[in-house]
Design brief:
This protein has helices at 2-16, 30-45, 47-52, 61-65, 73-87, 91-104, 106-110, and strands at residues 67-68, 71-72. It has 112 residues and is mostly helical. It has a two-stranded antiparallel ribbon. A hairpin with a 2-residue loop joins strand 1 and strand 2. The relative contact order is 0.16.
Length: 112
């Protein structure tokens, strides 16, 4: 499910950010890092996916341990995603919010 979600995620990314270069979808680029942070968050929180599986999806340990200031990185983005789900706005709105947040913390995320 993790890898399949990446395909869907990057397809949507290209629609929302049409000037995105294909190379940014691979390590070590920030776009790729954000996808690795968000993938398990989406799998663990999107209600329709949760109906299909009861598995707890994990991200890389490096991302789990990372912090932005005093806050852990993954829970920070998870809160953003949960707020997005409650808003019922289109996924592209969340992508823009998540990307803005990733760029805001790019030094920390890129150092992982």
């Amino acid at each position: 499910m993790h890898e399949i979600l990446h395909f869907l995620y990057f397809k949507k990314w290209k629609e929302v950010f049409p000037k995105a270069e294909r190379r940014t979808f691979d390590s070590p680029h920030l776009v790729w890092r954000l996808s690795e942070i968000l993938d398990p968050i989406i799998l663990n929180n999107y209600p329709k996916i949760q109906k299909l599986t009861k598995l707890k999806h994990q991200t890389y340990k490096e991302f789990q341990k990372a912090k932005i200031g005093n806050e852990k990185l993954v829970p920070h983005f998870e809160v953003l995603y949960r707020k997005h789900l409650q808003s019922k706005k289109p996924f592209e709105v969340f992508l823009k919010i998540a990307w803005k947040e990733a760029k805001k913390h790019h030094k920390k995320i890129s150092a992982i």
